[in-house]
Amino acid sequence: MKATMMLVESYSDIGKIASEWKSAQENGEALVFQTLEWASHWMEVVGRPQHIEPIIVVVRENLNTPPLVILPFGVRTSFGTRILSILGGFHSDYAGAVVSENCLSRCPKGEVIWAEIEKIARRKRVDLIWIRNIPMYLGKIPNPLWFSRCCQSGESNAIVGIKSWQNYYQDIVPTKVRADSRRQKKRLAEIGNLRFCLAKTLKEGIDLTQAMIIQKSERYSALGIKNQFDQPEHKNFFLKAMEDRNGLTPHISALMLDDRILAVHWGEVHKGRFYYLMPAHDERWEKFSPGRLLLEHLLEWSVDSSFEVFDFTVGAEAYKFDWANLSTPLFEYRKVLTLKGYLFFKTRNFYRTYVRPEGNPNRTKRPRECIVDGEI
């Protein structure tokens, strides 16, 4: 499609585009993080308290046609610098779009879309465009956010195309790991009643979510990592998800020993894809590997439920490579629009490199640094 055949609009009110957004995601392609339900809930619970300004970019063929692409962005202000990023912050593991069913033949190329996004960003007085974790595809449809100026900055892992859990488990998982899992289950069964359970009521979901937050906070403290749950809006994002979202509901599960919660997982299920998002376990029971045992139950459950993809999402933690049969590169795009944006990026880069380097002891490697697009 030529640029002259494209109409690009931006909305600051999600409600004004909600009905078209809902229709587009139901009939087209979207990852869970760009659904109306996810974006609306995040904006209400996290974005509003943090003074995030939503900018929903909509691409149409002309004024009277439904959206081809919906791109949910948000502008945050950090140290006086206005930064455009994907709506959902770090809760949105992937930067994608809602793509209509007609987009394969009619969507403009990424370069064209980004040129329009930049125009909107400049009108909104944005200093820096910074989009992380951009996959090349949304399912089988090209991601309109990806284009040649993006640089690879990481990867995600997934399990796809599994028809038999037992065959996969025997073929892929090392014998030593399978033997250890059997041993740990036996040891735990000697202590009490070991079981895998799914939250089926609102109360069960909230109770397990609260346990996840406690377990995750203890883990952050042990590793010396900043605890996101120190901010109440991040607690509320998970706790209020069951009651606030008017549509999608989280998938919450646990490994229980009698009434003890050994491990919890808080995730999502959307369009045949299981999203493995927030696993946690009780540090006091770590020697029994409760996190891995819960993961095995979840994998078996997802295969039995005929999900096409078990998505480990972002992160290069070593255990993901042990299980996954597909690794997908993720990309990043940064565009400096003002001197303030340039100074923010340089200052932050210096701080993260020399003052407080980022690190995760579970990662296998550190993604290479991206080059910023744009000159001052």
Notes on the structure:
This protein is α+β, with helices and mostly antiparallel strands. The protein folds into two domains: 3-155 and 329-355, Aminopeptidase (3-Layer(aba) Sandwich), CATH 3.40.630.30; 162-307, Gcn5-related N-acetyltransferase (GNAT) (Aminopeptidase), CATH 3.40.630. It is 36% helix and 27% strand. The protein is built from twelve helices and 15 strands. Strands 1, 2, 3, 4, 5, 6, 9, 10, 11, 12, 13, 14 and 15 form a 13-stranded mixed sheet that branches. A hairpin with a 2-residue loop joins strand 12 and strand 13. Helix 2 packs antiparallel against helix 8. It starts with 6 loop residues before the first strand and ends in a 21-residue tail after the last helix. Residues 359-369 have low confidence and may be disordered.
Number of strands: 15
The computed structural class is: alpha+beta
* Biggest sheet details: 13 strands, mixed
Described by the principal axes of the CA atoms, the overall outline is globular
Query: Can you tell me the CATH architecture of the largest domain?
Result: 3-Layer(aba) Sandwich
Alpha-carbon distance between the termini?
Answer: 32 Å
CATH C-level label of the largest domain: Alpha Beta
The whole-number mean of residue pLDDT values reads: 89
Count of all domains: 2
Order of helices and strands: EHHEEEEHHEEEEHHEHHHEEEHEHEH
Provide the CATH topology of the largest domain. Aminopeptidase
Low-confidence stretches: 359-369
Number of helices: 12
- Which value, in Å, is the CA radius of gyration? 21 Å
Q: What fraction of residues sit in β-strands?
A: 25-35%
Would you identify the CATH H-level superfamily of the largest domain? Answer: Gcn5-related N-acetyltransferase (GNAT)
Helical proportion, percent range: 25-40%
